């Protein structure tokens, strides 16, 4: 404590020592009695021991801010006592007093991390200064440890709160999806009734305006049924519970299987076709049923929005860890300012200025690609039209390829959506 007078040093030490306890170990009775009186004038609690074994027993019974010990003692030496303390309390503040300053004592103490060593006979001011230094360091360490402990408790508490919030979100998501599934079921039952009655009534209605009305009813019911199915698929995939059955498939077979499932692809004198560019024998390691559903939704979107003569150009290539399948159509393209929200649920109708459907087609593509471990991107090419890129992850190695073909999932028609070429 350079620059401090004895009175200032003593006053500072008394402030630090408030609430602190000290363990003092000394085998010589006269020195122990004298130093105990001095320490009791500084600290509110001073516990003494006559040797290292007694000191270790008392140390294990009580928490001490500072330990002051002699080296040469019977039963258990000061060095042996310090070694035992360090095993359970490596940061314990320890001050050593001794009448010997030889290397046989100093080197083991240095190895044990002892930085304060006072030779006997003890100098009063030197003792105060050394105790002040050790006590300051010990209290600073304890304050930091308490702060760290408090931070860890707060982190643990916040983590638990986040975990509970996440569980609540999952429960709400599950409830929402269950409700959507219930609504979808309740819609499909009357829709099937409407479609059945349309066919029944059609046989008794003469050609003309009545048949046109029936056509509109049937078309609207079918469109609502498709939208309901997409909403149910979106809810199912959003829960992340879809089990994948990956295998290696020809891309042209995937495309053909998807195109066959597009309703009205040859209606009203319009026929949706695709033109293949690149490797005609390209393959994808993917879940066939989900991949076909992705492609079918893209074909349906093109049929709606790519004009009177819809055509799609499909190109396949590999780039890094992705296998990319690009769809470019002959339509007017996407409004540039709305590209960022293109794959959000229930926004497609507004983006395309089209009243048909619920706006789930491209949102369903997005969630299906996420389920497959990939992603989907959209842009407007310089030569016109709209482009959608499907990015499928490349399998890490050939060992990823499964043997045989996946079985149909429960609830499907029991057949594969197509036969690979």
Key words describing this protein structure:
rod-shaped, Helix Hairpins, Rossmann fold, 3 domains, disordered C terminus, alpha/beta
Structure in words:
With 421 residues, the chain is α/β, with parallel strands linked by helices. The protein folds into 3 domains: 6-122, Rossmann fold; 160-235, Helix Hairpins (Orthogonal Bundle); 242-400, 2-Layer Sandwich (Heat Shock Protein 90). 49% of the residues lie in helices and 16% in strands. It contains 11 helices and 12 strands. The chain has helices spanning 6-17, 29-40, 52-61, 78-88, 103-111, 124-202, 209-238, 251-260, 288-305, 348-352, 361-371, and strands at residues 21-25, 45-49, 66-70, 93-98, 117-119, 246-250, 273-278, 283-287, 311-319, 322-329, 375-379, 387-393. A 5-stranded parallel sheet has the order 2-1-3-4-5, sandwiched between helices. The protein has a 5-stranded mixed sheet with strand order 7-9-10-12-11. Helix 1 packs parallel to helix 6 (124-202), helix 8 (251-260) packs across helix 9 (288-305) and helix 9 runs antiparallel to helix 11. The protein starts with 5 loop residues before the first helix and ends in a 28-residue tail after the last strand. The model is unreliable at 348-358 and 397-421 (pLDDT under 50).
């Amino acid at each position: 404590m350079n620059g401090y007078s004895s009175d200032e040093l003593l006053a500072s030490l008394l402030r630090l020592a408030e609430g602190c306890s000290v363990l003092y170990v000394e085998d010589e009775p006269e020195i122990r009695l004298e130093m105990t009186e001095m320490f009791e004038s500084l600290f509110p609690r001073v516990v003494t021991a006559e040797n290292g074994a007694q000191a270790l027993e008392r140390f294990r019974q009580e928490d001490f801010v500072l330990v002051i010990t002699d080296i040469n003692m019977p039963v258990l030496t000061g060095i042996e006592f310090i070694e035992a303390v360090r095993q359970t309390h490596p940061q314990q503040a320890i001050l050593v007093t001794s009448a010997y300053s030889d290397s046989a004592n100093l080197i083991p103490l240095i190895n044990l991390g002892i930085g304060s060593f006072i030779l006997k006979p003890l100098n009063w001011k030197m003792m105060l200064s050394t105790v002040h230094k050790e006590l300051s360091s010990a209290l600073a360490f304890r304050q930091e440890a308490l702060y760290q402990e408090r931070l860890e408790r707060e982190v643990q508490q916040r983590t638990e709160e986040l975990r509970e919030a996440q569980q609540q979100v999952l429960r709400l998501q599950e409830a929402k999806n269950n409700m959507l599934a219930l609504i979808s079921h309740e819609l499909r039952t009357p829709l099937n009734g409407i479609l059945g009655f349309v066919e029944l009534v059609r046989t008794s209605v003469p050609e003309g305006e009545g048949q046109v009305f029936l056509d509109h009813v049937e078309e609207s019911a079918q469109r609502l049924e498709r939208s309901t199915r997409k909403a149910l698929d979106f809810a199912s995939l959003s829960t992340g519970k879809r089990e994948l059955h990956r295998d290696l498939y020809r891309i042209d077979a995937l495309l053909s299987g998807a195109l066959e499932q597009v309703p009205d692809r040859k209606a009203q004198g319009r026929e949706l076709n695709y033109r293949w560019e690149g490797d005609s024998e390209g393959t994808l390691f993917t879940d066939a049923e989900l991949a076909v559903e992705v492609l079918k939704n893209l074909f349906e979107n093109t049929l709606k929005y790519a004009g009177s003569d819809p055509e799609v150009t499909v190109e396949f290539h590999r780039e890094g860890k992705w296998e990319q399948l690009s769809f470019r159509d002959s339509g007017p393209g996407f409004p540039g300012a709305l590209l960022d929200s293109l794959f959000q649920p229930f926004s497609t109708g507004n983006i395309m200025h089209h009243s048909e459907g619920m706006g789930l087609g491209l949102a369903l593509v997005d969630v299906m690609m996420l389920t497959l471990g990939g992603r989907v991107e959209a842009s407007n090419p310089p030569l016109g039209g709209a482009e959608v890129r499907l990015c499928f992850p490349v399998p890490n190695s050939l060992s990823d390829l499964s043997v045989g073909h996946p079985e149909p999932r429960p609830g499907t028609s029991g057949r594969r959506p197509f036969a690979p070429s």
